[in-house]
C-alpha cells in the first residue's frame, strides 16, 4: 500500500511506528534528543537529514501553475512504494520530475501518471538510494519535497547468553541481528556504554553478529548487560567470581609392590585448570613408564612397574593457585621366610602392611589385590565371592569367569597367563593376584581365597568396597517466585556413592538457551537455596549436582520452567465518584508498574467502620477501572480498598482514607440551558423538534414541564427524563406547538427554573 505522510499532521496521534512522522519529530525535538531519535527510527545519516530539514521550504500561498503542491516532506518504509502527487492549474500542462536536481527518466521503478489535473510520480520498491530531494517543475514554477526512506526495524535473531567467569578472564557477549552492520546500543544495568569507554569495553561487528568484549573482567563488571536495536531488546547476566578452586577428590597415599601400577588421581572444580606433578619437589617428566593425563576435571599420574626408586612424596600443584595436593608412595617389599618341606599352605595378608580385611576402590578404577602365599608342595588357590550366588572360577582356557553355580575350581601351581576378562586371577610362584578392571558397584562383596595342599589348607576373607560419585538428585522444585528471585528446593540423592554427600552445586539457564551457569562456588550444605538476580519475564530452568569426596554426580533433570514475575503496584487515583442511599460508585486508574506478569483484573473490598473484616464488593475480578457497589445499607460508614491482580499475586492495596457514609449526597438542582435555546427556537411546520436540556441535582430531582402556564400533557409531545438530562421530542411540529415552555427542577424545598420559547411557522 502507499505510504503518504505529510509534514504537518495537526493533532493526529500515531498508533504505530510506521505511522510516526520522523520529519515532524526531528523538527520539534531539541538537539539533545537527535541521537536518540535517529537510533529509534533507523536514521543512518542524521547529519545529512538535519541539513535537508533546514532546506525544506514553506509552501507559497500563491501559485499560478499549481493548484496543490507537494507536501514539504514524506517518508516511506524501505521496500514499499510511494506516490508523490501535485495538482496543476492547466490540465494539459507537462511536468518534469527531478531527483537531487537531475531529471528522472521513466523506468520499471519510476512511473509517471497524468489524470486530469493530477500529476503523479510513483516510486516502486523504495531503497535507500531513493532517500533524496524531489522537485516537480511546471514551466518556471517548482514544487519541492524531501523523501525519507525508513529502514525496517532491526530484530535480534539470536539473543545474548548469560556468562560466568573468573576475575581477570575475557568476556565476550554475542548476539545476532537481522541486518548486517546494524546500529545497536549496549547498556550495563540501564546505563549506556559509550564508544569513549574503549579502555574497558570493545564493540565489534562481524556481518550480522554484534559483540561486546571485556578483556579483563573485574568484580565491578557484575550486572545485567542489554543490547538494543530499534526493533528488539536482549538481556544477559554476567557473574564475575574470585578465582577459587575446589578439590572434589584429593590424591591419596599408596602402598604398592614391585611390578605393580601406582595411580595418583585428583579432581578439581575447574576443568580448564592445568597443573604440574612433583616428585620430592622436582617436576615429574613423563616417559614410557610414567604417564600424566588431564581429562576434564580429573588429573592423573600413573606409574607402571613400580620400582624402589619410585618411593617418594608426590604433589600436584594447580596452575595459578597457591596450594598443592600431596601424597606418599611407599614401596612394599614382600619377604617370605624359607618354608621347610611338607609345610601347610599359608596366606600372608599381614605382609601387605595395612588392614587387609577391607579394600576400597573408586568406581571405574582398577582393583589389583596381591596375596602372598606359601606352602610345600605349592598350594592350589581357589577364589570365591561368598556373598553372591555366582563364584569366581577358572575356566578350561585358564581365564577366570563368573559362574552361576557355587562350585570351586582349583588352579594348578604353574604360572597362569593373564586372561582377557574384566575379572581375573593371575598365579605367580609366591603370590596370586586378583584383578577387577573398571570396578563397578556390583563388584562389592566378600571375596574368599582358599589355598590347599596335601598337608592342609588356609582361608582368608577380603571385603571389597566400591565407592563412586553420588547418583544425580531428582529435579529441584521451584517456589516463592518473585520479581527477580525464587526458592529452589531438592532432596538428597538416593545413593550417595558410599561416601557422605559434602554439598551441592546449583546451575541455571534460560529456557531457550543451551548454556548452564553455575550459581555457587562454595558447596551448598542445605537442601534449599534463594536464587536471585534473574530477569523478570524470562523463562528459566534449574538443575542440581551432588558432590562427595569422590567427585560430582551427573546433573539432575531440569526443574519445571518458571518465570520470575512480580505483582503489579497498587492502582492509582482511587476515588469515590458518586454515593446514593444504597450504592457507591468508585473509579481508579491502572497501576504505574504492571510488569511482565500482565494484569488479570482488580478486586474491590469494603470494611465497616471499626471492623477488621474485609468483604468482597464484587463477585470475582473486574477488568474495568470503575465499579458500582450495590445493595449497601443506608447510613453505614464503609472503608473501601482495591488491589490489582496478576499471575504473581496481589498488589498492595489502594485505600480511601476516610470512611464513606452510604447516603444520598444533597446537591442543589441546577439547569444548564444550552446557548441556542436562550433565544426563540424557530421551526417550520412538519420539522422534528428534539430539545436536550442537561441538569444536575441529588437526589434525583422532580422534573415539571409547563406550556403557557399550563401542565404539559399532550399526546404528540414526548418527554423523557434521566438522572442528568430531560428531553422534549416532537416528531412533526404544528402551529399549535408554538408557545412558552417552562422547566422546573425540584429537590425538597429547592427549585430551579428556565423558560424556552418555540415559534412554529408555516411553509
Key attributes of the depicted protein:
single chain, 763 residues, Immunoglobulin-like, six-stranded antiparallel beta sheet, 45% strand, elongated
Helix and strand layout, with pairings?
Elements: H1 22-28, H2 34-40, H3 46-55, E1 66-68, E2 73-77, E3 82-88, E4 96-99, E5 102-103, E6 110-115, E7 118-123, E8 132-138, E9 141-150, E10 156-158, E11 163-166, E12 171-177, E13 185-188, E14 191-192, E15 201-206, E16 209-214, E17 223-229, E18 232-241, E19 247-249, E20 254-257, E21 262-268, E22 275-279, E23 282-283, E24 290-295, E25 298-303, E26 312-318, E27 325-332, E28 343-347, E29 358-362, E30 367-376, E31 380-385, E32 391-394, E33 400-403, E34 423-427, E35 431-436, E36 445-453, E37 456-467, E38 477-479, E39 486-489, E40 503-510, E41 517-518, E42 528-531, E43 540-547, E44 572-579, E45 584-589, E46 601-608, E47 615-616, E48 626-629, E49 637-646, E50 649-650, E51 654-655, E52 660-661, E53 667-671, E54 681-684, E55 689-698, E56 702-707, E57 710-711, E58 718-721, E59 725-730, E60 739-747, E61 750-761
Parallel strand pairs: 2-9, 11-18, 20-27, 29-37, 54-61
Antiparallel strand pairs: 1-3, 3-7, 4-5, 4-8, 6-7, 8-9, 10-12, 12-16, 13-14, 13-17, 15-16, 17-18, 19-21, 21-25, 22-23, 22-26, 24-25, 26-27, 28-30, 30-35, 31-36, 32-33, 34-35, 36-37, 38-39, 39-42, 40-41, 40-43, 44-45, 45-48, 46-47, 46-49, 49-50, 49-51, 49-52, 53-55, 55-59, 56-57, 56-60, 58-59, ...
Amino acid at each position: 500500500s502507499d505510504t503518504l505522510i505529510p509534514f504537518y499532521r495537526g493533532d493526529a496521534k500515531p498508533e504505530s511506528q510506521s505511522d510516526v512522522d520522523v520529519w515532524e519529530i526531528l523538527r520539534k525535538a531539541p538537539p539533545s534528543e537527535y541521537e536518540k531519535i535517529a537510533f529509534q527510527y533507523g536514521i543512518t545519516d542524521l547529519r545529512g537529514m538535519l541539513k535537508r530539514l533546514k532546506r525544506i521550504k514553506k509552501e507559497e500561498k500563491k501559485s499560478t501553475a499549481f493548484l496543490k503542491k507537494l507536501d514539504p516532506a514524506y517518508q516511506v518504509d524501505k521496500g514499499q512504494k510511494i506516490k508523490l502527487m501535485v495538482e496543476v492549474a492547466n490540465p494539459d500542462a507537462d511536468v518534469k520530475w527531478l531527483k537531487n536536481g537531475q531529471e528522472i527518466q521513466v523506468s520499471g521503478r519510476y512511473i509517471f501518471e497524468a489524470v486530469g489535473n493530477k500529476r503523479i510520480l510513483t516510486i516502486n520498491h523504495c531503497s535507500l538510494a531513493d532517500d533524496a530531494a524531489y522537485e516537480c517543475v511546471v514551466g518556471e514554477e517548482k514544487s519541492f519535497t524531501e523523501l525519507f526512506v525508513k529502514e525496517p526495524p532491526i530484530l535480534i535473531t539470536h539473543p545474548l547468553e548469560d556468562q560466568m567467569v573468573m576475575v581477570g578472564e575475557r568476556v565476550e557477549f554475542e548476539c545476532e541481528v537481522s541486518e548486517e552492520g546494524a546500529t545497536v546500543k549496549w547498556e550495563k544495568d540501564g546505563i549506556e556504554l559509550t564508544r569513549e569507554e574503549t579502555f574497558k569495553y570493545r564493540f565489534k561487528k562481524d556481518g550480522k553478529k554484534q559483540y561486546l568484549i571485556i578483556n579483563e573482567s573485574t568484580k565491578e563488571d557484575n550486572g545485567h548487560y542489554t543490547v538494543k536495536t530499534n526493533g528488539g531488546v536482549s538481556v544477559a547476566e554476567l557473574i564475575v567470581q574470585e578465582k577459587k578452586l575446589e578439590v572434589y577428590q584429593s590424591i591419596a597415599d599408596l602402598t604398592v609392590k614391585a611390578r605393580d601400577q601406582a595411580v595418583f588421581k585428583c579432581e578439581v572444580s575447574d576443568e580448564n585448570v592445568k597443573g604440574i606433578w612433583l616428585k620430592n619437589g622436582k617436576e615429574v617428566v613423563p616417559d614410557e613408564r610414567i604417564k600424566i593425563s588431564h581429562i576434564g576435571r580429573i588429573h592423573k599420574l600413573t606409574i607402571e612397574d613400580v620400582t624402589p626408586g619410585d618411593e617418594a612424596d608426590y604433589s600436584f600443584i594447580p596452575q595459578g593457585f597457591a596450594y598443592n595436593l600431596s601424597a606418599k608412595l611407599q614401596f612394599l617389599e614382600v619377604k617370605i621366610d624359607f618354608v621347610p618341606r611338607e609345610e601347610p599352605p599359608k596366606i600372608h595378608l599381614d605382609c601387605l602392611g595395612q588392614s587387609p580385611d577391607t579394600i576400597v576402590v573408586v568406581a571405574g578404577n582398577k582393583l589389583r589385590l596381591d596375596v602372598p602365599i606359601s606352602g610345600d608342595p605349592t598350594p592350589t588357590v581357589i577364589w570365591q565371592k561368598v556373598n553372591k550366588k555366582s563364584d569366581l572360577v577358572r575356566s578350561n582356557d585358564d581365564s577366570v569367569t563368573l559362574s552361576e553355580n557355587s562350585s570351586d575350581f582349583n588352579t594348578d601351581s604353574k604360572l597362569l597367563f593373564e586372561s582377557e576378562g574384566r575379572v581375573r586371577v593371575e598365579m605367580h610362584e609366591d603370590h596370586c593376584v586378583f584383578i577387577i578392571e573398571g570396578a563397578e558397584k556390583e563388584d562389592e562383596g566378600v571375596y574368599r581365597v582358599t589355598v590347599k595342599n596335601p598337608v592342609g589348607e588356609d582361608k582368608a576373607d577380603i571385603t571389597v568396597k566400591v565407592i563412586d560419585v553420588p547418583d544425580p538428585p531428582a529435579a529441584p522444585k521451584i517456589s516463592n517466585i518473585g520479581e527477580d528471585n525464587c526458592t529452589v528446593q531438592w532432596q538428597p540423592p538416593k545413593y550417595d556413592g558410599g561416601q557422605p554427600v559434602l554439598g551441592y552445586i546449583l546451575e541455571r539457564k534460560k529456557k531457550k538457551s543451551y548454556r548452564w551457569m553455575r550459581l555457587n562456588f562454595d558447596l551448598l550444605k542445605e537442601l534449599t537455596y534463594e536464587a536471585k538476580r534473574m530477569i523478570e519475564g524470562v523463562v528459566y530452568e534449574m538443575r542440581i549436582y551432588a558432590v562427595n569426596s569422590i567427585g560430582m554426580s551427573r546433573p539432575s533433570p531440569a526443574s519445571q520452567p518458571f518465570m520470575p514475575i512480580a505483582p503489579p503496584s497498587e492502582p492509582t487515583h482511587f476515588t469515590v465518584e458518586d454515593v446514593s442511599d444504597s450504592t457507591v460508585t468508585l473509579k481508579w486508574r491502572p497501576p504505574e508498574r504492571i510488569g511482565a506478569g500482565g494484569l488479570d483484573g482488580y478486586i474491590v473490598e469494603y470494611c465497616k467502620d471499626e471492623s477488621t473484616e474485609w468483604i468482597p464488593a464484587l463477585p470475582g475480578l473486574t477488568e474495568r477501572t470503575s465499579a458500582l457497589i450495590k445493595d449497601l445499607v443506608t447510613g453505614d460508614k464503609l472503608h473501601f480498598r482495591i488491589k490489582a491482580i496478576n499471575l504473581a499475586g496481589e498488589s498492595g492495596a489502594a485505600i480511601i482514607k476516610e470512611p464513606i457514609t452510604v447516603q444520598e449526597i444533597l446537591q442543589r438542582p441546577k439547569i444548564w440551558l444550552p446557548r441556542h435555546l436562550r433565544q426563540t427556537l424557530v421551526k417550520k411546520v412538519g420539522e422534528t423538534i428534539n430539545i436536550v436540556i442537561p441538569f444536575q441535582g441529588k437526589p434525583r430531582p422532580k422534573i415539571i414541564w409547563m406550556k403557557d402556564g399550563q401542565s404539559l400533557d399532550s399526546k404528540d409531545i414526548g418527554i423523557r427524563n434521566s438522572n442528568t438530562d430531560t428531553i422534549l421530542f416532537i416528531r412533526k411540529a404544528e402551529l399549535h406547538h408554538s408557545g412558552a415552555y417552562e422547566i422546573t427542577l425540584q429537590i425538597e424545598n429547592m427549585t430551579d427554573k428556565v423558560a424556552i420559547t418555540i415559534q412554529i411557522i408555516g411553509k
